[in-house]
Write a structure and sequence with these properties.
This protein has about 270 residues and is mostly helical. It has helices at about 1-25, 30-35, 40-75, 80-85, 90-110, 115-125, 140-155, 160-180, 195-200, 220-225, 245-260, 265-270. Helix 1 packs across helix 3, helix 3 packs parallel to helix 7 and helix 5 (about 90-110) packs across helix 7. The longest helix has about 35 residues, at about 40-75.
Length: about 270
Amino acid sequence: MLESLWTAVRLLAASALVFGAIALATKRGEAVEAGRRALHEIRINLSLYFLDALLVAPAIAVLVALIQSTVVRLSLSMASPATWMRLGELPVFIAAVFAGDLAGYWRHRLEHTRWLWPIHAVHHSDTDMSWLTLSRFHPFNRVTTEAVDIACLAMLGFPQWAIVANALVRHYYGELIHADVPWTFGALGDVFVSPVMHRWHHARDVQGAGSNFATVFSVFDRVFGTYYVPGPCTVPLGVTDAIAPGTVGQLLYPFIGWAERLRPAERQKESV
């Protein structure tokens, strides 16, 4: 457990150095003030990050191994790792990230539906989005995310190293697109998700909150009609859900959200 915690601290420190430098380069003196304004949200993100490192991540590692062994045992793979490797390592790497992002796109859209939203709303509740927002996930959401994404890649038959590479790319690219920087990537934004594009996904009460579901490749949102980047995102972020402040409120909210959905329609109307 201590080893897992130490690894989490080192990874967090490395990302903090990178994104701290980016913030100073893009915002200069405003970077410190922006960090001060986001301090409450940062505390919640950090608490969920270390909870994940200590308790959730080890459980997910077991789940991932179980999923992969099940796919092999039941012969659910559409291809073998050896078949993929005939293409060469670089094409396999690119294919794994592309396929992983396609699976993640549709999984993410499902997370915005009625019954999965309560666990995903936690991630969207950050009103001062930063690279640390990627750490704000309810444990249930973390489990479903990893289970779906790993299962899809395992059934496609990708080799183990490519599945791990996909997870690493999507994680660190995810930190980048959550960063509080006004980057659109210019022409590259036609292919890759930019921080501005993803910020619109976190917008509250606007059309953009139901758009921009991809993590790496913006082409998926363009092809499936969910691309929305009208310009710089300066609107309020967060959710309209009544999530209690603090880490405990974040962890309890899915149960409250599901209870609300189970209430008879008549009682829901009376409470409005």
